[in-house]
Each structure stands twice: as structure tokens, then as C-alpha cells.
Automatic annotation (TrEMBL):
InterPro entries the record matches: Rossmann-like_a/b/a_fold (IPR014729), UspA (IPR006016)
Gene3D superfamilies membership: HUPs (3.40.50.620)
Lineage: Bacteria, Pseudomonadati, Pseudomonadota, Alphaproteobacteria, Hyphomicrobiales
UniProt protein name: Universal stress protein
Domain UspA: 15-150
Domain of life: Bacteria
Length: 164
């Protein structure tokens, strides 16, 4: 992993990383990140992770179709999220699509971009728990390479405005 973040060095700017997934609360993380970018004079990187399906050799043609469909769905999700960020902060976020295991891909994106200063996630406010990504990261937070901000999915735009 990159030992030093360069986000505040000359020629660099801080970026906030947001995961755009299929959860109901992704919008809260995007909203917070866009507001943060305004205040910090930074940028937003939006990441969509496609988790690979297990397939056998005889189904490779089907797997290729499924991969193409997942890529299209990822592009559409990032289009929605980028439109939301642009509407909030008049910014054009960077877009990254990765395929693989979620935590591995998340760490790789952070490692490859030394300007990422923070990861923003949104937690599900429901009784079923905070969501799979927040739960997954809970075990890795002690060794995580950047600060992690977790926004409640129950916060309104006005509440996020007052916090960011």
C-alpha cells in the first residue's frame, strides 16, 4: 500500500472515494462526498465494484454476456451518481469500475491514487444492519489506509448540509 497520501502536496488535490452500489443509501454517501468536495476544494472518485460470478468452462459464453450486462449496469449506476454529484456541487467526479472481491478492489483503488484522502460510506438505518460493505470494513478499519466516514442513511439533505 502507498505509505504516503499526496493529496495536500503541491500539484495534488484531496479526493473523496465513494462506493456506488445497489443499496438504497448510496445517495447519502454521494451527497456527503459532493458537499465535502465543495468545502475542501477537492474531488470525488466514484467506484463501482462488479463481483465476479463463479462459472464453469461450459458456461463461458453466458459468463461473457453476464459480464457485459454487469458493465452496462455499472455504467448506468455511475451515470446516476455522477449526475447527482454534479447537481449538488457542479463537479464531474472520476468514475472507476473494478471487477473482483470488494475489499481487495477498494484497497487497490486507494493504493493506485495517492490523492484519495477519505472513504465515505452510508449505513442502512434499518433493523437489518448497516449493510454488507460497512460490515465488511468494520473488521479492516484498524489497518485501513485512509479515514473512513460513515453517514447514516437516515440523514436528510439539510442534516448532511449542516455536517459537511
Amino acid at each position: 500500500m502507498t505509505s504516503k497520501r499526496l493529496c495536500y502536496e503541491p500539484g495534488h488535490k484531496p479526493k473523496c472515494l465513494v462506493i456506488v452500489d445497489d443499496s438504497a443509501e448510496w445517495d447519502r454517501a454521494v451527497y456527503y462526498a459532493a458537499r465535502w468536495a465543495i468545502r475542501a476544494g477537492g474531488g470525488v472518485v466514484m467506484l463501482r465494484i462488479i463481483e465476479p460470478e463463479q462459472q464453469s468452462q461450459e458456461w463461458l459464453g453466458v459468463a461473457d454476456i453476464m459480464r457485459a450486462e454487469a458493465q452496462e449496469a455499472a455504467e448506468a449506476a455511475l451515470d446516476r451518481a455522477a449526475g447527482r454529484a454534479n447537481g449538488i456541487a457542479a463537479i464531474t467526479p472520476e468514475r472507476v469500475i473494478r471487477e473482483g472481491e470488494a475489499l481487495e478492489q477498494l484497497l487497490a483503488v486507494i493504493d493506485e491514487d495517492p490523492d484519495i484522502a477519505m472513504l465515505v460510506l452510508a449505513a442502512n438505518p434499518g433493523a437489518e444492519g448497516p449493510g454488507p460493505l460497512v460490515t465488511l470494513l468494520a473488521n479492516a478499519l484498524g489497518t485501513f489506509p485512509v479515514p473512513v466516514t460513515i453517514i447514516s442513511g437516515a440523514l436528510s439533505d439539510q442534516s448532511v448540509d449542516s455536517l459537511s
